[in-house]
Amino acid sequence: MGDLTDNKSLDNGVSVVPSRKKDIKVVFHKVSGDDDDDDEHTTETIHLQSKRNEERGNNEEARTRSMGNRLKGIFCPMCRRIGDGGDPISTEAGGTFAKEKKHCPGLGLFYGLLATVFFSVIALLVKTIDGIHAVEISAIRCFFQMLFVMPMLIYYKTGFLGPKEKRIFLVMRGFVGANAMILLFYAVQQMPLADATVIMFSNPVFTSLLAWLFLKEKCTIWDCVFTVFTLAGVVMIARPPFIFGARIEGIEEDYNSHLKGTIAAFGGAIGAACTFVILRKMGKSVHYYMSVWYYAVIGLIECVIAMFILGEWTVPYCGRDRWMLMLIAILGIAGQTFLIKALQIEKAGPVALMRTLDVVLAFIFQFIFFNQKPTLWSLGGACCVVISTCGVALRKWYSNGHQSRS
Q1: In sequence order, which residues have a C-beta less than 8 Å from that of residue 119 and are 6 or more positions away?
Q2: pTM, to two decimals
Q3: Is residue 232 one of the residues assigned to a domain?
Q4: How far apart (Å, rounded) are the C-alpha atoms in residues 297 and 276?
Q5: What is d(CA 214, CA 201) in angstroms, rounded to the nearest whole number?
Q6: Region 175-181: what's the mean pLDDT?
Q7: Are residues 205 and 238 in the same domain?
Q8: Structural domain of residue 213, as residue ranges?
Q9: What order of strands is seen across the sheet that includes strand 14-17?
Q10: Please, which residues bridge with residue 8 across strands?
Q11: Annotated region Disordered: where (predicted)?
């Protein structure tokens, strides 16, 4: 009907006038009852627009716009839009998309670097404080951490007890994590700073083994190889007399203190690995600040009880040590915050590799502030532990990326 070039009247008084392809114009000629008044026709025009053509045009327009947005996402990363994060924005097609939050490239690694520096400075400050037991330092840190986390729990309305079915895991996380912190501080006081840091840094290797035992995660032959390398590095740092002889170089006081520090650092590494496994078991159903809250409260209670039993509670000798203790607590909170932010932005593999700088900073601090040169055995043990930790991080990074692609 749209191909007609002139008006053709129909017997029933209806004629069709050609118009655009999208419209069909129907003209009704209303004839009056008197035949003599044929010239006095009243014409009423009704425009009926084809809905089918309109819908087809809208679909083509939306398809063209969608293709344009897809091309923008390919050729212009700044214009990319995703549907599972960011703030929703409206488009002309009526759809709602989510705009991806744009982060500065390398921001996650920068946060990981800040966390590494803060944790290294904490170990250095613990080493410089004299006359205060490691348990008392841990108690002061837990006290200030608890004061910081309490307003956060009120702000996020999480409560102070957590989900009922997760409380047993929260208690275990607080108890094991507090013990790992105490053992680390004790190891730093009893042995060279770099040696204690290297042994504590071996916890990712033990995390893989404990996850295989308790969480049924996959364990490969590489995990076993990395574990052997880590244990070899710990032995090289500990240097037991029955292997290395009676004359041992590179220890601060006597070998008994060095051995106590080695055992404490190794126990702290196992405790840190258990903490990571418990956090994996809880998953994301528990708020991060709730986990830190249990860590601070249970750690404070445990440290206070231990101090009364040991009878080692003392007041810092000078104001400088008191400021150091407060700075340890503040840096501990800042380090944990930046580490969590790094893991939220960046993948765990690169962040774990960034944490290897902790060992390098420990050797640098030991040489600058304590004038202690590392021995070849310490450097060899550090290389074994760092290689093993980097191997675990790279393997996890590769396996996670391969699973996401498949």
Answers
A1: 331, 335, 358
A2: 0.69
A3: yes
A4: 19
A5: 21
A6: 92
A7: yes
A8: 108-405
A9: 8-9, 14-17, 23-30, 42-49
A10: 16
A11: 31-64
